[in-house]
Amino acid sequence: MDFEFENFKVQGVKFNYYFVCKRKLWLFNNGISMEENSDRVSQGKLIHENSYKKKEENKEKLIDGLIKLDILEENEVREVKISSKMKESDKMQLLYYLYYLDKIGIKRTGTINYVTERKTEKVELTEENKKYIEKVLVDIKKILNMEKPPARIKYPYCKKCSYYEFCYVEEV
Ligand code: SF4
Prior knowledge:
Blueprint: H1 12-20, H2 22-29, H3 39-50, E1 59-63, E2 67-72, E3 76-81, H4 87-103, E4 109-114, E5 119-123, H5 127-144, H6 164-167
Parallel strand pairs: 3-4
Antiparallel strand pairs: 1-2, 2-3, 4-5
Helix pairs in contact: 1-2, 1-4
The protein binds iron/sulfur cluster.
């Protein structure tokens, strides 16, 4: 049976959070939004504003109000990241963008530009990762429908998370 993408599609940021922390995904989805205060986000915004000035017309393309592509070019989608610290979630988010575009008839490959390290990573959508993305979308829906947030997990990056105080309130 065909996967009913319309019933499962989510914002790119939620797809990313699934790989960062499922509790964060749930909190964000429930309107507990603290990300604007995060240093990493402010830094990221600055980098996006200052990068690739010549490609102004291709920058920050919002599709269906759900996915925001840093740069959409003729053959590829480029994402600009500060560093490769969250490599896995960065890669999966870009794969989701490629999957989303593919669903609306736009075929692209992907490149992630890690600005600080001055390196790039190529990302390609395969049949195998299409299936995996669908599995993740089903799981995301289950998490978003939970009545309470998933339990806290101690990640090395919790202290840098915008929900840190919320999650560790009794310890700070
Ligand atoms: S502080 Fe840690 S457990 Fe809490 S939402 Fe952030 S990453 Fe998840």
